[in-house]
Structure formats: structure tokens, C-alpha cells
Write a structure and sequence with these properties.
Layout (H helix, E strand, L loop, with lengths): L1 E3 L4 E2 H9 L5 H7 L10 H17 L8 H11 L3
Antiparallel strand pairs: 1-2
Helix pairs in contact: 1-3
Amino acid sequence: MYVCVCKAVTDSEICRAVAGGVETIEDLCSCLPLGSGCGKCLDAAEAVLRQQLDDQVDRQTPDGSRWGDIRSKLVLSGAA
């Protein structure tokens, strides 16, 4: 879904940015052209950002590592 119509930024792009380490709306705006048109997208972009960050916390293991990190290690070691 388009979050920013002016610059054609999608929720998928925001998800990829969060997966790459983005944690704030400022970081998000520095790597994607959000808010550089009319600015009406910033609330929706922040909602997607917060949801993705919440989802990441939900996917963490008790020791704080992420399930994706564990799976990557298993794949690299040939255990998965």
C-alpha cells in the first residue's frame, strides 16, 4: 500500500528500512523521501514504523536475539 502518494513510498519499503535498522521517523525520512512533498504521509509512515518495531520485539527470543538472526545463523551453518 502507498504510504506517501507524492513520492510513491510503500509500506513494504518502510518494512525493509526497519529490517535494515531504522528505528525513528527521522531515520526513516533520511533514507526514504517521506515528508518531502506535502507531508501528509508522516503520521501513516510513523504508524507503519511503530508497528514494524513492535513486531520485531514480539519476534525476539528471551535472550534478546531475533528469530530471523537465529535462522540466518542456522542456514549459514547448514543446520536448517
